[in-house]
Design brief:
This protein is α+β, with helices and mostly antiparallel strands. It contains 11 helices and 8 strands. Pfam families: AraC_binding, HTH_18.
Length: 275
């Protein structure tokens, strides 16, 4: 699978989602905070994000500003023939080692990525074999450019810069949530650990991410449940329920169906059949 959504300006509602394939996301314009895993990025035109697999991510765009992005989804196995060519480099290395990472492209680098994306869109629309091959080769060229920018010593991901105190505070909240999302979390506990009032925490998190704290927690738990059903099919629904911090199976089942679109037992059986 190799799909390009080019220059999309469709409005969105913020929601957390994940998928098995890799993703290249390019931000053309607008005003957007992007939450990926436990990191928040305030985007600027020219930002390119690579995403690896099942990580939860959610874009929160300002609806008063036109939000324009291009998105590529692809299966890494598609690139195997290009990895076996003489003198080929591992163009999947940035995804495999950085997992989820933002490149801030400006000037000629920004223009080059936009030229490649425009060419990919042109080739994709041709609908013939030559166009399809040129589409794939243009994508390989884009991945080599990404590799080129990531080859400097792998950037220290602990030195995240924030554009404001608000983003830094929400990042602290997310770090606490990620460390404790399977525990019996409540607003009083967060208030105590972060030394901020419950009302301020709730308001700030929703303002920056577009979702509530407990929406984040439940989405994180359900996403982890899907991974467990996929990776450890011997686990029962009840075992996964309690492992992820739910006290009642009915509550877990109701939320799983709400977030995943089907009951957990159905999802688990489906994954076992596919395996």
């Amino acid at each position: 699978m190799l799909d390009l959504l080019y220059w999309s300006d469709q409005p969105i509602e913020p929601f957390f989602h994940s998928h098995m394939h890799y993703e290249v996301y390019y931000f053309h314009g607008g005003k957007c905070n992007y939450l990926i895993g436990d990191q928040i990025y305030e985007l600027a035109p020219g930002d390119l994000i690579i995403m690896y697999g099942m990580t939860l991510h959610c874009a929160k765009a300002d609806p008063s500003v036109e939000y324009i992005r291009s998105i590529i989804h692809f299966e890494p196995t598609l690139l195997q023939p290009y990895l076996e060519l003489p003198h080929a480099r591992n163009i999947l290395q940035p995804f495999q080692q950085l997992n989820n990472y933002r490149l801030r492209l400006r000037g000629e680098d920004k223009a080059e990525v936009e030229r490649i994306l425009a060419k990919m869109d042109e080739y994709q629309k041709r609908g013939d074999a030559v166009g399809d091959n040129r589409f794939r080769l243009a994508f390989v060229d884009l991945l080599y450019m990404i590799l080129d920018h990531c080859e400097q010593p792998l950037l220290n991901r602990n030195r995240q810069e924030y554009s404001s105190e608000k983003e830094a505070t929400v990042q602290r909240i997310i770090s606490v949530l990620e460390e404790n999302y399977t525990e019996d979390l409540n607003m009083e506990l967060l208030e105590e650990r972060l030394h901020l009032s419950k009302s301020y925490l709730s308001k700030l998190f929703k303002e920056v991410t577009g979702v509530t704290i407990f929406h984040y927690i439940y989405t994180r738990r359900i996403n982890e449940a899907k991974i467990l059903f996929l990776m450890q099919p011997e686990l029962s629904v009840t075992e996964v329920c309690f492992r992820l911090g739910f006290k009642h199976l009915a509550h877990f089942s109701r939320l799983f169906k709400q977030y995943a679109g089907m009951p957990p037992e159905q999802f688990r059986k489906r994954e076992q059949v596919q395996v």
